[in-house]
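Notes to self, Heat-inducible transcription repressor HrcA:
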Amino acid sequence: MTERSKIFEEMNDRSREVFRRVVEGYLETGGPVGSRTLSRTLSEKVSAATVRNVMQDLEYLGLLEAPHVSAGRIPTETGLRLFVDGLLEVENLTEDDREKIDTTMGGSGADVGEMLDRVGQALSGVTHGASLVLAPKHEAPIRHIEFVSLAPDRALVVLVFADGHVENRVFRPPVGQTPSSLREAANFLNAIAEGRTLSELRRAVATEIGQRRQELDDLARDMIENGMAVWDNEGDTNPRLIVRGRANLLQDSAEAADLERVRSLFDDLERKRDIAQFLELAEEGEGVRIFIGSENKLFSLSGSSLVVSPYMNADRKIVGAVGVIGPTRLNYGRIVPIVDYTAQLVGRLLSDQRQ
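result:
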């Protein structure tokens, strides 16, 4: 039993109800909830003084805090996690939300990028938050690889896939690269690339370089290893992380602290670093996962919450993720089924495109 579970078990019915109503009030309004307000709504008729004592006990347990000098309380991150794990009632997806998602994503077109962009637009529109969609990597077998020098400090890798898809990615080559090192690197890769996907080639390259280190020119080896970085889409002109609905985060952010939090989050989203971790977050557990404040490794500095779910391709392999990010007072009960439904819908759409 975790420490949070022990705390929850030790709470009596009155403290649980006070705690639940404080959290629900905070999630609805974003503001502190006072003892006088609670005393009028509790199922048990008690005085405001009694409620105040219960709130002080909950504050001592680390579940509530007072944001100002006022008597009102809001939940801490620990309190929100306890609520999500033990008291959250997940709603059923409403027909209205389902229809909005289905309608927005119902456009024609075989381009996966356009389809996932519509997914992001739909998700942000329905939840009134910022949506994150991690697009799958192109996993068709590779037909040909070519390196092209653009400048002493810039090179281009051209990836031609068996299904006709072509990707051009710019990266920083090793210092002193020559036309011969470019050719040697390309010849080495093409000799082992045919029939392999990027993921498979990445593993094969590591093995081959280890076995044939003496045969490869140092510059060619560096070229291959530097080029591998862009295979994870660093600096890709078509970024795998699609962010929509940033403007929604500015609503109801009148206080300076809220605006600073949103600015910090915008900076994180603009950099789009560590997007592979976004997928790792979704892969760590089945279905929808909720990360609150500092639990969220990617956006912890902004104190935001993330509701995220992976989606699968036709082979039941996790290839991407969808999520909603916003303040900690997200309406988790409503957003969880929306994210879950959207992830399942994306998986079906991707599977349909392969048929």
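- The first helix runs from residue 3 to 10.
- The beta strands are 64-65, 74-75, 130-134, 142-151, 154-161, 166-171, 241-244, 289-291, 305-312, 318-326.
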